[in-house]
Automatic annotation (TrEMBL):
Residue ranges annotated for the PRTase-CE domain, each copy included: 43-328
Species, as recorded: Roseomonas alba
Entries under InterPro entries matching the protein: PRTase-CE
Pfam family, one: PRTase-CE
This protein's name: PRTase-CE domain-containing protein
């Protein structure tokens, strides 16, 4: 590899040498990061999707596809658990401690502050974003384990409310526990912010109608900057945050994409965009660059978000068959 590395450093590598360098990089990523989800025969099956339909020679399309794959950010099970620790500690617990201290006039007595924080925690419930089968709820199991929380501190959205039949024959809704003051909604990724907006228009609106002073937080492991700003404009408000906020440089096909800052020889930005968007349009005509045109190269051990380029996760259909690299399990 030393000879190839030297050639790449001087921009004298052939397309074949660039391809070989990327192949080695992906082999290492698969062994060390991707949990062996894409061994080389599987990568070759994915590359076979790129057969010239974007208007280039198949070899050119496959070289650019391979470069995109080499930049894929995969969040495995170990990384997910660490990120969930950070969601709890950095986005929730530390701000809560600061809030409690301020409410106590800047008190720094550890015992007094700890007692007040525990009282606040007793009136806090954690929820996933989505129904019980979706990833936001799925993450709560690991969230509870990693942060050593009691299962009594968790709710599903249906358990927030109770329904009773009034004397007038009408259904009346109430909070299941009126003593709860904080509701923390946990998610894996906020791309466009649409899911949180839907929650804000639904469950959050009803919750605030019953308890106007409830404190709400939307906390994610990853969020695009525009997505989290959208969430902050909803009823979740300023209590919305992510461990990692992804700016526009993470839009992998944009002019300022960070993956292009150190691209190897024979990777052309215009070709890269046309290849990804042409096949993306075949697979997902409404959003060839991923939902909201977020153009992400991001996936988790439990699923791949639809904000990621469809060429990475789509399976296609009878008219456009497609072998995915990181399969997405869609919401049905």
């Amino acid at each position: 590899m030393a000879d190839i590395d030297d050639l790449l450093a001087t921009d004298e590598a052939t397309p074949e040498q660039t391809f070989e360098m990327l192949r080695v990089r992906i082999t290492v990523l698969n062994e060390r990061v991707w949990e062996n989800r894409n061994q080389w025969p599987q990568v070759e099956a994915w590359l076979a999707n790129f057969d010239g339909r974007a208007g280039f020679d198949p070899e050119v399309e496959q070289l650019h596809a391979l470069f995109l794959l080499s930049q894929f950010l995969f969040i495995g099970s170990a990384e997910t658990r660490v990120l969930l620790q950070s969601v709890y500690r950095d986005l929730f617990l530390i701000p809560l401690i600061q809030e409690v201290r301020e409410s106590l006039g800047g008190c720094r007595d550890r015992h007094i502050v700890e007692t007040a924080v525990n009282e606040a925690l007793a009136k806090t419930r954690f929820l996933g974003v989505g129904n019980p089968s979706e990833s936001g709820v799925h993450l709560l199991y690991y969230f509870r384990q990693e942060n050593r929380l009691s299962k009594s501190q968790f709710l599903d959205s249906a358990a927030v409310f109770t329904s009773t039949l009034g004397e007038d024959g009408k259904i009346k809704r109430a909070l299941a526990d009126s003593d709860i003051e904080r509701y923390i909604f946990v998610d894996d990724v906020c791309g466009s912010g649409d899911t949180a907006v839907n929650y804000s228009d639904g469950i959050v609106t009803e919750l605030l109608a019953l308890k106007p002073d409830a404190k709400l937080h939307y906390l994610a492991m990853f969020a695009t900057r525009k997505g989290i700003e959208t969430v902050r404009s909803t009823k979740f408000g300023a209590g919305s945050a992510a461990v990692f906020e992804l700016d526009d440089s993470y839009r992998c096909l944009s002019a300022g994409a960070r993956i292009l800052l150190d691209a190897p020889p024979h990777i052309d930005p215009a070709t890269l965009e046309k290849v990804a968007m042409s096949y993306g349009a075949l697979l997902r005509p409404g959003y060839p660059g991923g939902w909201g045109n977020n153009q992400l190269l991001l996936g988790f051990q439990h699923n791949t978000p639809d904000n990621t380029l469809p060429i990475m996760w789509a399976e296609g259909d009878a008219s456009h068959p497609w072998t995915p690299a990181f399969k997405r399990y869609a919401k049905l």
